[in-house]
Design brief:
Gamma-B Crystallin, domain 1; 9 strands; four-stranded antiparallel β-sheet; about 180 residues
């Protein structure tokens, strides 16, 4: 009888472990549309260092991502069609914040006063990407619909070379810049 109880208890533990493993596997599923590609040069120059960061994920610092320190070294970005990205001028999500909408392409972050200024970011995955754009700042508003200077069709190259990130054909974008008050 003792062996029977032991056998039943062992079976319950094994089934419980399988349920926990299944739940963990479910949580590790990747949204293939939730990403940002960052470039250390303008206009998505994929001949120079660039990196695809998969979401959802928070990066308190961009130091040592795939062996490179990306802090203050991003000049252009492409956001996946299922992502919203909040980028910050300081590590640990502090300082001026800029929000990139799904499908947004920024060939020159200098147009938004954020070139080589990003030190942390949060990548959130969306269910359905937004389709309209507006930029807000402290005391001055800028519309960012023309920040992206080109769109591409799936399979097109962004520069003279090919990139590994999916291409987006979205032309209307949202960028929000928030400067903290002191």
């Amino acid at each position: 009888m003792l062996w029977l109880k032991f056998f039943i208890l062992s079976g319950m533990i094994a089934i419980g472990t399988l349920v926990v493993e299944a739940a963990e596997m479910e949580m590790k599923m990747v949204d293939k549309n939730c990403w940002i590609e960052v470039f250390d040069d303008t206009k998505y120059d994929d001949k120079d260092p660039h990196l695809i960061l998969q979401g959802p994920k928070d990066y308190a610092t961009l130091k040592d991502l795939q062996g490179k320190d990306w802090n203050n070294d991003i000049e252009s970005v492409i956001v996946g069609p299922g992502a919203t990205v909040r980028a910050y001028k300081e590590r640990d999500f502090r300082g001026t914040e800029i929000v990139f909408a799904s499908g947004q392409r920024i060939p020159k972050l200098s147009k938004l006063d954020m070139s080589n200024e990003i030190e942390s970011m949060k990548i959130a995955c969306e269910v359905s990407p937004p389709a309209t754009a507006q930029t807000t700042g402290q005391g001055n508003d800028r519309t960012s619909g023309d920040v992206s200077d080109r769109t591409s069709q799936p399979g097109d190259s962004r520069s003279s070379g090919q990139s590994n990130a999916p291409a987006s054909s979205t032309t209307t974008t949202t960028t929000t810049i928030t400067t903290p008050t002191k």
